[in-house]
């Protein structure tokens, strides 16, 4: 049996696959992969759970596989959350520094965060899932990452606050509970994915991670080490598969396998007249199409997804700060030539990434589809380490009216420095 105490189990509730990864942090930023399990996800659409029963079944199946491979029992998981009901934004507020010395204390920092939370309007059908401090100002001095110990009369703080639909959260909680495991924490998918594919220096430089999955595309922008913007687009690889199924007049299953095998939109070096066989389906005989036909079906949808990404980047107002460019991950980033199209549309440098910093059975999760699951392990490993090393700076929100809304605040930015 493996040492259960040291291993972390990630549960990625994806729209196409449920993925369970068991990993053990062995040193800073390095995870030893010891188990993996996957199952087809039939109860999740565009990142939202639409069928609890089938999702529970799929979770159990993926967990059993992972348990077998890791030789350990899974009792606790860290899980991702995403979907159309996620809302994210930056919020500011200000407090007076009242002690006699006019020195910023932990209490002042806590007060400014409480003030931000108390003025942040969260609709009654939403619940806050993350509060990440972005930066502070002390009097006229701006862009301060750590205000503790600074002198002034006025402390301003800004936080990135993420909320999610209460129903989505309840459905997720129920699925995890019914699968018979304890939920340690839930993390926005894009935050998790970025843990797996970004380095600390890329976060400093200004980089956007775009995780293109099956049902959703998760976006997060890091600037100066912290989250500056995040967003969720309800499109992904499933839309491409559906288009192929309609365009090629074939089943979803055949369209999916053709997409995975021939999904390349980069025309350079490709023979557009190359013939591709569409297997027979029910009463329809097999047929042959040219590669060019596939491109004319796949490319417009990929373009549409990337145009949505561009819209979000423009909306963030941060495009000109992205010296680190764009990192594409998630299963749909495997489409050949997507990075060239992304460069053209986003007008930024683009590269693809899969989970990094792994040892052990790493080849089992060495695909962009595992960015979220591996990132969940890294996220927990890092926050646990952080809490142990910096117990005084773990923020908690106790204000009565916000009770149950924000339970944990992680000073992400400081953690990244
Ligand atoms: N080689 C490939 N070429 C093109 N697309 C691929 C390839 N391999 C996987 N995909 C697509 O990637 C998607 C699955 O990616 P991923 O596992 O990241 O999504 P997910 O986490 O299940 O879903 P989501 O994050 O959207 O809820 C599917 O749409 C699949 O068709
Ligand atoms: Mg995913």
Counted beta strands: 19
Structural class designation: alpha/beta
Overall geometry comes to: globular
Q: Whole-number average pLDDT?
A: 90
Separation, N- and C-terminal Cα atoms: 36 Å
Residue windows where pLDDT falls under 50 for at least 5 positions: 1-5, 386-417
Widest sheet, order of strands? 11-6-1-2-3-19
Topology of this protein?
Elements: E1 8-13, E2 17-27, E3 30-40, E4 44-45, E5 48-49, H1 52-70, E6 76-81, E7 87-96, H2 106-119, E8 126-138, E9 141-144, E10 154-165, H3 166-178, E11 182-188, H4 189-197, H5 200-205, E12 207-212, E13 217-223, E14 226-233, H6 237-247, H7 252-262, E15 275-278, E16 287-290, H8 291-316, E17 325-329, H9 338-346, E18 350-352, E19 358-360, H10 371-389, H11 412-415
Parallel strand pairs: 1-6, 3-19, 6-11, 12-17, 17-18
Antiparallel strand pairs: 1-2, 2-3, 4-5, 7-10, 8-9, 8-10, 12-13, 13-14, 15-16
Helix pairs in contact: 1-3, 4-10, 6-7, 6-8, 8-9
The structure holds adenosine-5'-triphosphate and magnesium ion (MG).
Task: Describe what you observe in this structure.
This protein starts with 7 loop residues before the first strand and ends with a helix. The longest helix has 26 residues, at 291-316. It has 417 residues and is α/β, with parallel strands linked by helices. Helix 4 (189-197) crosses helix 10, helix 6 (237-247) packs antiparallel against helix 8 (291-316) and helix 8 packs parallel to helix 9 (338-346). The strands form 5 sheets. Strands 11-6-1-2-3-19 form a 6-stranded mixed β-sheet, sandwiched between helices. Strands 14-13-12-17-18 form a 5-stranded mixed β-sheet, with helices on both faces. Among the domains are: 87-163, Dna Ligase, domain 1 (2-Layer Sandwich), CATH 3.30.1490.110; 199-352, 2-Layer Sandwich (Nucleotidyltransferase, domain 5). The radius of gyration is 22 Å and the shape is globular. The chain has 11 helices and 19 strands. It has helices at 52-70, 106-119, 166-178, 189-197, 200-205, 237-247, 252-262, 291-316, 338-346, 371-389, 412-415; strands at 8-13, 17-27, 30-40, 44-45, 48-49, 76-81, 87-96, 126-138, 141-144, 154-165, 182-188, 207-212, 217-223, 226-233, 275-278, 287-290, 325-329, 350-352, 358-360. Mean pLDDT is 90; it is low at 1-5 and 386-417. Bound molecules: adenosine-5'-triphosphate and magnesium ion.
């Amino acid at each position: 049996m493996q040492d259960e105490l040291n291993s972390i189990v990630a549960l990625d509730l994806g729209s196409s696959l449920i993925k369970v990864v068991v990993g053990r942090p062995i040193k800073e930023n390095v995870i030893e992969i010891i188990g993996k399990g996957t199952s087809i996800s039939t109860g999740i659409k565009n990142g939202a759970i639409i069928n609890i029963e089938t999702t529970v079944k799929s979770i159990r199946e993926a967990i059993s596989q992972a348990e077998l491979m890791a030789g350990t029992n899974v009792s606790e998981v860290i899980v991702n959350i995403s979907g159309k009901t996620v809302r994210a934004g930056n919020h500011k507020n200000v407090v007076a520094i009242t002690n006699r010395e006019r020195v910023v204390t932990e209490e002042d920092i806590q007060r400014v965060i409480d003030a931000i939370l108390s003025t942040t309007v969260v609709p009654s059908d939403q619940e806050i899932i993350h509060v990440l401090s972005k930066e502070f100002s002390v009097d006229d001095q701006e862009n301060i990452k750590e205000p503790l110990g600074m002198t002034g009369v006025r402390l301003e703080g800004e936080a990135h606050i993420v909320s999610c639909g209460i129903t989505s959260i309840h459905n997720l909680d129920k699925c995890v509970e019914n699968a018979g495991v304890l939920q340690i924490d839930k993390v926005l998918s894009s935050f998790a994915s970025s843990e797996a594919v970004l380095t600390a220096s890329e976060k400093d430089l200004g980089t956007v991670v775009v995780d293109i999955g099956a049902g959703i595309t998760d976006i997060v922008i890091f600037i100066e080490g912290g989250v500056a913007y995040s967003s969720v687009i309800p499109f992904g690889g499933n839309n491409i598969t559906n288009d192929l199924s309609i365009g090629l007049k074939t089943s979803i299953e055949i369209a999916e396998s053709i997409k995975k095998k021939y999904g390349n939109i980069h025309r350079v070096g490709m023979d557009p007249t190359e013939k591709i066989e569409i297997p027979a389906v029910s009463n329809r005989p097999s047929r042959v199409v040219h590669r060019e036909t596939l491109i004319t079906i796949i490319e417009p949808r990929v373009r549409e997804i990337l145009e949505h990404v561009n819209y979000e980047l423009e909306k963030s107002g941060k495009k000109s700060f992205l010296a680190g460019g764009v990192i594409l991950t998630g299963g749909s980033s495997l489409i050949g030539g997507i990075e060239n199209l992304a460069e053209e549309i986003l007008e930024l440098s683009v590269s693809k990434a899969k989970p990094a910093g792994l040892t052990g059975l790493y080849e089992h999760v060495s695909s962009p589809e595992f960015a979220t699951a591996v990132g969940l392990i890294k996220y927990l490993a890092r926050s646990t380490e952080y809490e142990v090393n910096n117990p005084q700076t773990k923020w908690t929100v106790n204000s009565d009216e916000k009770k149950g809304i924000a339970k944990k605040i992680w000073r992400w930015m400081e953690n990244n420095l």
